[in-house]
Fold each of these.
Amino acid sequence: MFVSAAVIFGAFLAFPLEAFPLANRKVSNQSNSLGPLTFRADGTFQISIFEDLHFGENAWDQWGPQQDINSVRVINEILDKESPGLVVLNGDLITGENGFLENSTVYIDQIVNPLVTRDLTWASTYGNHDYDFNISGDAILERERRWRNSRTSPMVSGPDAGVSNYYLPVYGHGCVSEYICRPQLILWFFDSRGGFKYQQKDASGNRVGQPNWVDASVVDWFNQTSRGLTRRYGKVIPSLGFVHIPPFAFYAAQGAGVDPNRQPGIDDDLPLAPQAQGWCRDGRNDGTCTYGAQDTEFMRAISHTEGLIALFSGHDHGDTWCYKWDKLLPSMDVTPANNISLCFGQHTGYGGYGNWERGARQVKVSKKGLVKFEAGTWIRLESGARDGRVKTQDRDDDVG
Ligand SMILES: *[C@@H]1O[C@H](CO)[C@@H](O)[C@H](O)[C@H]1NC(C)=O
Ligand SMILES: *[C@@H]1O[C@H](CO)[C@@H](O)[C@H](O)[C@H]1NC(C)=O
Ligand SMILES: *[C@@H]1O[C@H](CO)[C@@H](O)[C@H](O)[C@H]1NC(C)=O
Ligand SMILES: *[C@@H]1O[C@H](CO)[C@@H](O)[C@H](O)[C@H]1NC(C)=O
Ligand SMILES: *[C@@H]1O[C@H](CO)[C@@H](O)[C@H](O)[C@H]1NC(C)=O
């Protein structure tokens, strides 16, 4: 796994984190006021993934705000049981179609309150429901960044890139400065967009759909940046990825058969909804096509990036399994080269469709397991039970 031994120390010093353009958008001045993410003294690092929270439904009815109270309770109950070093909010934080322009993002304050109370930091990806006529990734980001605990920091500019595309390095225990430490783990966040364009209507007065896949500009950025990190540190740094809408490979894996013993979890959304669903190859989304394949380059990139252990998605509330993508799957032409695990989390919010028990996927890596590019993962349910425990690789590691 080791690339050429040359550690280009000069280049390392010349490219601190800020050198990556923060895109041309208004983010607060707090991007680096948090200390670096670090492993615990015991050599582990844990992530709790809250996804599909769907805050802000029907604010004018009693049941909408009540759902949000219930969702806050879920977050609190899970955090009473788990001790993550980072929380990931993996998309559909808010049900944007119910929002009013003037206050569609205020729900962020409610979502993050349990995290702020515990002094936890978080990182978001935005989902299709976070983009609508009265809400946008940029608007949510603005609200998030009022809290210093937010690590969401867009790194790809451009009109079609979406917002939540960035990476976060995680350093060894005791690291105090990202300028001198070497990352032990890289976390990649991708924006699968979707939903509708902010404050835009077409000639007939309808909302304008936004493509629902990771944009090509982001795939290029990921390819270049991950190779740049490998060069800079002279080795492949293990990594994990997060994206709200699963790419088509999840769909193909489900079609090939999810086995309750080998891929434990719920498999009720059958078939699941992947990126590029409802779009045509020529870019139309007029309801005439089922899948446009625009996520192919993204799938090629994630399945050929050495050291990328797993990709975590939400979106399909009725699916919670993990699948090791280790071969060419039927109806696909991307052959994976890195055995990446494709993992759903668990529907966390009381908003959004479905009544499967609420919960949150946990991911735990150890320095020892990462040497073999392994991570451990399980789901913590609202009831407190622990479910669906799997390793992302077949071999044992010391995690979990
Ligand atoms: C920048 O930081 C200062 C000091 O923490 C704070 O008062 C100010 O509101 C911040 N600016 C923005 C845009 O968040
Ligand atoms: C957007 O917000 C405005 C202002 O509150 C409201 O009047 C309108 O109904 C909302 N539009 C949509 C499509 O939700
Ligand atoms: C948002 O604004 C609408 C319309 O102005 C109002 O009815 C609603 O109570 C507000 N919601 C929140 C959460 O402040
Ligand atoms: C990354 O870019 C290089 C050069 O353009 C290309 O050869 C390679 O296939 C790309 N890799 C991935 C994983 O997309
Ligand atoms: C992927 O897993 C297969 C077995 O499922 C194994 O033969 C192969 O060596 C693995 N490849 C990598 C890159 O780990």
Amino acid sequence: MASSYLLCFSTITIWFILCAKHVSSQTCWRDTPCSDIITAAFPGEWEADIFAPASRTISPATIFDLSTGEEVGSWPTTFTLASNQSEVYLDFGKEVGSIVTLQYEVSSVNGAGAIGLAFTEAKNWVGWDSDFSNGDYSRPDGAIYGNFSSAGNYTYVMPDENLRGGFCYMTLFLVGDAASATITNVNLELSFQPTWSNLQAYQGYFHSNDDLLNQIWYSGAYTLQVDAIHPLTGRAWPLPDEAWLNTGELGPGDTINTDGAKRDRTVWPGDMAVAIPAAFYSTDGIE
Ligand SMILES: *[C@@H]1O[C@H](CO)[C@@H](O)[C@H](O)[C@H]1NC(C)=O
Ligand SMILES: *[C@@H]1O[C@H](CO)[C@@H](O)[C@H](O)[C@H]1NC(C)=O
Ligand SMILES: *[C@@H]1O[C@H](CO)[C@@H](O)[C@H](O)[C@H]1NC(C)=O
């Protein structure tokens, strides 16, 4: 009896391992149940136009010096920040969003120090302040900080409440007396289209003999996708005293279509009149 249980158990284990292997690089957002959509409905050359990445965990593409705008390196690499100097911004190459994890090694600091993280959608706004998203237009969103007070290796995971819905650029800067820190790893866990294990599994397609038009279509489709968010990650109201707060409850279900990935992360019925038919034709990522 015991051995047959064991056999059954190991068969199930193997089955799980095989299934897990099959979707190894692709998962749904945290514990959101996955939908049945796992592959593109119309495979073809147009899939090359899809902006959505193949994996939910991504890294930046290029690193630039904040003060000069010069390229410092491309990913993967490591780079060192010193207090009030050598600030950088990381270019993800497209609109992305969600939870950032930063690993860094502090080699020196005198007292309290911190690495600041600030986010913008447009390059002309990169700097110590994130662009507006929280609904209070009297102040920018500011920055969030990974704090430290001694040398050592650190991992900073952005708190869930500070989930950053939409950005292309992330600025990193160091504050603290005589501080120096080397960034050893950066990654981003995408939260949009939370029930899809494969973010490229579009259920519609578009293709013409005009490459620009094809890209315009697919950038629209991707915009709809980044606006399709988990209902517990909307903009919270009333707004917080500092930074931003994306723990707002928007409604039922596992996905909700909003007006924007960064701002407002809110359902506006007027926007939906345009967005929903377009989403049906492009991704069909509608619940
Ligand atoms: C570092 O820069 C910040 C912001 O510009 C400024 O408030 C602070 O005084 C500077 N600190 C030092 C040590 O230069
Ligand atoms: C972290 O560092 C920032 C910037 O120096 C500071 O404003 C904030 O109070 C610090 N937070 C904690 C918990 O020490
Ligand atoms: C950080 O970790 C690396 C690798 O384990 C180690 O060599 C290094 O000494 C650590 N740095 C500090 C400041 O503890």
